[in-house]
Amino acid sequence: MTLGELARLYPIGRFRFHMAFRRLIVLSMLCASAMVGQQGDSGKAVVVQPGAPGMPTKTLPASTKGVLPPTSRKDVEFMQGMIMHHAQAVEMIALMPTHTENKDLRTLGARMSNSQSDEMKFMRRWLTARGQPESLPMAGMDMPGMDMSHGAMLMPGMLTPEQMDALRKAKGAEFDHLFLTGMIQHHTGALTMVKDLFDTAGSGQDAELFDFATDVDSGQRAEIRIMQGMLEKETVAKSDKEKQ
User: In the chain, what are the domains?
Assistant: First the structure.
């Protein structure tokens, strides 16, 4: 069975699927290397580099060390900015238990919170592995759609302090409406960030970053469609109530 066939059978998102698949591959290679090392005449571990399709493998010196691919400034800024972006989404969702009884919305919120929390952990690990800080520097930022007019640095689509304050004060149907419109705005901003990453020459070429960014794009587009559908139902229900 091919990788593509597995991905279609288990549609968990390309980024998460590839991360799990890579862990399986790495584990298999470690086991194979250990077995080869145990069978070697010298008793030393053997480092084997898989060849390209149709090409033989190569035996490398035992001192060989893995090297991470080069990263661009935009790659780092994207990850740092997306951590901040995700953090606000998680903050918005955390209001749900005390602000709404809408079961469908709470279910969607729980799913988004879990996925974005996991993605934040991944982004922090990615930055740490490359010796980069988790937070964006305040100076020298020029990301399209960034808002600096509210006394704080906001990534594209992030809610302003005034919008967040209104959301905290809302309850019931008013909260549901503000949450959905606010999160659609928020998700649309994430799509802008992904587009900006791939529009920047030399950026988004790291394999893990590429898989992550494309998964963010597809996942947030799907959630925008779900939330738009919820808003349409809300409008219809309000219209029917007014007619009665």
Answer: 3-60 (no CATH), 73-243 (1.20.1260.10)
